[in-house]
Amino acid sequence: MKGSKWILTALLVASPLAVQASCESVKADISQKIINNGVPESGFSLDIVPNDQAEQAGGQVVGHCESDTQKIVYKRNGNDSENNVPASAGTSQDSPAQ
Question: Would you indicate the residue range of the signal peptide (predicted)?
């Protein structure tokens, strides 16, 4: 019985870390898709923001994580003011309607 209490405690402590890791892994996956579509790594940034701040982030939402409480926002860097993201980046749920 004592062993199961320790396991439960360890899971409760590790849960927030696992949620953050999943958000970072989604961000990494999206970043890799964008790079694979020919955008240099220095040509964009991805930011994880709370849902209520996604509109003010100044970019395009390309993903979500943490049970849809966080959004991943794409911003293009450099002189190019265009904020278009490759269609195959992000998830199908987040892609623009065509």
Answer: 1-21
Angstrom distance (rounded) from CA 25 to CA 65: 9
Instruction: Please answer whether residues 61 and 54 qualify as being in contact, where contact means their C-beta atoms are separated by less than 8 angstroms.
Output: yes
Q: Which tokens in the block code for residue 60?
A: 């395009």
The pLDDT of residue 5 = 60
Q: Are 34 and 86 in contact (CB under 8 A)?
A: yes
Tell whether 16 is covered by a domain: yes
**pTM attached to this predicted model:** 0.61
Residue 68, domain member (yes or no)? yes
How many residues are given for the chain? 98
